[in-house]
Amino acid sequence: MIIRRVRLVSGLVLLTYLATHFINHALGLISLEAMEAGRIWFLALWRNPLATVVLYGALTTHLGLAFYSLYRRRHLRMPLWEALQLVLGLTIPLFLAAHIAGTRLAHELFDVKDSYALIVLSLWNVSPLNGIRQAILVIVAWMHGCIGLHFWLRLRPWYSRVVPIFFSVALLLPVLALLGFAEAGREISDLMVRQPDWFDRTLRAANVPRGQQRELLAALRNWMLQGYVATLALVLLARAIRSAIQRRSRIRLTYPGGVEVAVPRGLTVLEASRFAGIPHTSVCGGRGRCSTCRVRVVRGWDSLLPAKPAEVRVLQRVGAPPNVRLACQLRPTVDLSITPLVPASGQAWHGFMQPSYLAGEERNIVVLFADLRSFTGMAENKLPYDLVFILNSYFKTAGEAVTRAGGVVDKFVGDGVMALFGIETDPNDGCRRALNAANEIVNGVNQLSQLLAAELAEPLKIGVGIHSGPAVVGRMGFGSAVSLTAIGDTVNVASRLQDLTKEYGCQLVISEEVAQHAGVNVDSFPRHDLTVRNRREALTIYIIEDVQAVVGQRTIK
Q: Domain 250-351 sits in which CATH superfamily?
């Protein structure tokens, strides 16, 4: 966690420096004089002693952590965006060494006045090739920083709303900077034509290094490049030696479907998946921030070391149960059997904070089923367009009623609706809300029937069944069909009660549990004992011809 935060802070410092540099460049669209005026403020901000320590400390730290991160990788298989960011980051020092030697070191060692007049003259007029290299440097550095910033912020729920603004800024800043630099170059070309002595005056005013001074700066540039290349080579060599040692010791991971892979010991589960070519989601790139790589440990749980506090905090954010771990943080030392919990096409929102029940949990909830009466026979005489219009109108009516009552629409099946209540509260609250929803659904269908009277052979009628009890709740499904749902005996009973509304010719059938939790008096309604499969005791139900008779009681809030 500390390393990630230091990398983030150092990266933000460097990105801020680059952004202010771009803004200063963009002033060239106004004039060279505007660039020089802006540079006064730029130097005041970044060349004071404190800022110098912060800036070059951030640069050294960020580069050092890049080497450390490269060493820690057990293999180089990674998503395209991650590989692009890595390659861009490792490319930056190759271009940066010459820039540091020609500006900051020249200023500190030989008191060179690296004004915009001198810089633009050198890169635009004297050596356009160096100008191209400088343009590549700023573009590469900016892309590297923006990729990192994007994959950090994308884990924030609000980011999707402002990403167009971020993208616009990220695109416009370097474009305006390069255009400003080019405009300044053209202005200097004009000055050199109109004022033949301008070139010599600018060089004298800048105190340009000559002879041995230039040779020393070139030597410093070469030393920086050689040191960087040597360090990179040592890191890669250390990785190769470590990999050769680890290949002698392997563990086996078993994935769903019986897929078994043998990987070197010491890899994280995420690294093992990528090593074996098994798709495994990780929005943050394996940095332990997004939770999208999480897995359920099916076998071998007892042999694992406890999760560290940083991993625990991420898992708590998504309400993960105890046997779920982050694949990017879990380094097994024995054979494991695991199940990835996020599809291979997982998105950032899979890592957002969410209630624990979304991962799968048994809860006491309330289930409501509603179904239109005799709709199948009615549909036989309708055109497809008319049928779809009527059903969509009905689904809208029922869905809005459930939502207003505080429930969750589970699914629409045929002409039926399944809704859940009390998931985040308790059965008492859930039952009261479910009864309110039943009343709104009935009233809404009656109003819809009046509006569509000219299209219907007979009025629409609906039956509702409500039951309360334990059920397994969680996000289930595949691909785009994943949604919050519930399974279990409570769901089956609620569906059965809805079916009974046809037999009894009533609007609503509720179980005794619903009546008790809701606190309603049902003594005046017909009572029946129902034998339900998989239940030892009979289920007491109440037949309610008019929903309003129950909802009108003052105990329903």
A: Beta-grasp domain (3.10.20.30)
